[in-house]
Amino acid sequence: MAEKPTPGDSTDLSSNTNGLSPLNSSLVVCFGEMLIDFVPIVGGVSLAEAPAFKKAPGGAPANVAVGISRLGGSSAFIGKVGKDEFGYMLADILKQNKVDNSGMRFDPSARTALAFVTLRADGEREFLFFRNPSADMLLRESELDVNLIKKARIFHYGSISLIEEPSRSTHLAAMAIAKASGSILSYDPNLRLPLWPSADAARKGILSIWDQADVIKISEDEISFLTESDGPYDDDVVLTKLFHPNLKLLLLSEGSKGCRYYTKQFKGRVPAVKVKPVDTTGAGDAFVGGLLNCLASDMDLYQDEKRLREALHFANACGAITVTQKGAIPALPTKEAVLQVLKKDTA
Hints:
The radius of gyration is 19 Å and the shape is globular. By secondary structure, it is an alpha/beta fold. It contains ten helices and 13 strands.
């Protein structure tokens, strides 16, 4: 049974700060949405055809937080869920996975977000969201755990919290606190077009904070969408349209092909670790978690191409292991599992 907040407490659920301090911390704070994904119990069907659904914890920033913790890193999650059974369950899942959940807030008047997700036989993802509004959209600046943000060596976020107020203003305020505290800002837009009012609003919203990030991870589809071009494989398109002067590292995830990387000094590609995929859910989040876990303990990683390539090989292995099981959080690997896969891959 999930732990519940004490009566009258709209802020905390529990805290496990792992003895973090601003001086010696390699803490990654992940900000944004955590929700319940409902996935069909059989694969390759549309949502309408699915005979039944299984619930799974989801939300990209929360997945990244758990991914880092599984690898032995230090992570925290900041976001809002409903003061309901699903909300308590999600907070409990973070706690079980040793993620500091003291920055979570619980809304008595809004529900925890739900998403129905399927991978159809034609390979296309189908989403149906229930959030009008859901609790994650209602996080206010006054509810931010400022001290937790100030401890972050890396502050990681997506774009979904930019769609509506008050979460948009809260997101911007949290970024400003993290930046002023010397945190590296990490951005994975994680485009979910059905949630935005229009494609144009999504493009403008995602790009509105682009120039503030130190590290950005995007997918091929997101490059095409953001640049309004057919050139996701063209380095010139990527560098002229998406690489900004403050950016330390731009990563392009290419699924089974691996990833590309761009810094001010160099660029290249790291091949994927070959596996037999079962479910691609959470692969990108596992990749981001793997990379941020390496970066949190080696902040100059992006300046040394050899060390960067090693970190990206590790991150690719994190993503590869995740696609061999169903669901995101249940499939996120331990460091031991990743090292085993890497040993086989280089043998």
